[in-house]
Specification:
The chain is an all-alpha fold. The protein is built from nine helices and no strands. Helix 2 runs antiparallel to helix 3. The longest helix is centred in the first third of the chain and has 24 residues. It is elongated.
Amino acid sequence: MTKHNFDDDYLLQLLQTDETKAIEIIFKTYHASLCLTAHRLLQSKDVSKDVVQEVFMKFWTKRENIQINTSLKAYLHRAVVNTSLNYLQKNRRNPTDDLNTVEAHISSHKNTAEDYLQAAQLTSDIDAALSTLPPKCRTVFILSRYEYMTYKQIAEELQISVNTVENHISKALKILKEQLQQYL
């Protein structure tokens, strides 16, 4: 994919005058990296593409009123992270689905049924504990622990300092330790 060397001010001005060309350039410039960001959180190529498409659609429909205080790249990446987290929140698996899966396995693995139940309960408890984290703290934690990003990568991705990333991780671990005390 062709990378363009346009600065944010030029692209945002172009968006006001030649909207179609501007959105095309913005799309070609950022689409691939936005899909990677979404995929890190969602673990699905198709859902990631849908999320990025949704972000571009919102960007297009709200283009006249958008106020960008950071870079265009940071703005779009933040929108993708937030939309991805919203998707995960809305589509969180129901614990009963996990139990239904466990029940299906019980008939063929009777000697490990207790293991499946414990795993399903742990998964459910971890999801519940993660949902109690403040949004930014949860984002940082997911990028660190589930996407294996370094603190520096997270800081660059979210446009925050490495120190702030460390603080969010400390806070998340403290909250999760309290919430999951029964497993420790």
